[in-house]
Model the fold of this input.
Amino acid sequence: METTVLGVLRKACDLIGNGQSFGIIEAISSLQDQASGRTRDLAYYAVLETAMMGRGDAFLAVLVGHDQRDSALELLQATIRRMMSALH
Done:
């Protein structure tokens, strides 16, 4: 069974939290064996949408930033919360 967009976002959180990935793009890209390109693309778009709803350009730097671990986790968690609230 393929991983969902929420699953990709959660796994990306884990990878960044454990220091296995430095940025959101790297973390999501590394999940190519667990999720299709379409699912990963949807995860990227969900993160970008959350970034644009919040602090916009300030958050875009965390997508690839190596010194942005806490901000990357915050953005991923905000995206997960936003998606979960839309489901309920």
